[in-house]
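Supplementary notes for students who missed Thursday's class. We covered one full example, reproduced here. Read the sequence, then the structure, then the short commentary at the end.
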Amino acid sequence: MRVILLSPSFYFLLFSLYSATLILMENKPEIDLSFNEIIKKYGLLISSLSRRMIRNTAIAEEAAQEVWFEILKSIHTFQGKSEFSTWIYTIAHRTIIRYAREERILKTREINQFFDLPEITTLKDEKSNAASVKERCDECLTAFCHCINNRSRLIFLFREIVGLSFEQISQIMETSEVNIRKDISRSRIKVRHFMEKDCILYNQDVTCKCRIKKFVSHYNIQEAYKKLGRTAKLARLYQKFDKELPRKNYWEKFLID
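Structure (token representation):
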């Protein structure tokens, strides 16, 4: 059952968990981070994962906050048998996948139709600047990775955005490292297939069909991505956008003063 994260009862329960967990953490040497340090270290990445997995912004925010709630509920069970980050991302995996049940794979026709829509010549209700154009480009990056199923997309994002090792991802997803490598390889091929022919940021030689190609060219946004190495370009492209655009950490509201 989903928790209504903005309800008073939720925050009362959260406060109770905070109080109990703060006492508990004093006697858990396996965890050498404070609440605030955990929020700052993992909150932004969990929020980014949730946004890439779930296109509905409100549901993505709720999913990310639910991850924090689940961490608070379960932190007493952490025994240090795995890395703390592995434990956190395992909870993120189970929670975000549950919220992403309504997400589906976009068919080739649907992705192509996305780019075949009429060109946007003005940016309504937005300042026509490079930052707002990048936001539109970022929406395309999320659409591209929706050409793969939920499980494969999360594995792909764990590797390309979070930068986890194959071994760590295999522990999180409870499968062999060989299977993880194969899954990521297939996902990269699928995502690159669309980006190679439709994304000027990824392939400088493509005849861009993007709806906002006028603005991409006007602000010369593609120039900043020429330096990205071809081999690791896919991962670096996603990581660069996540670092450059103003990102919201959905856990920040839980920081302790």
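Commentary. Residues 177-198 form the longest helix (22 residues). Residues 1-6 have pLDDT under 50 and may be disordered. If anything here is unclear, bring it to office hours.
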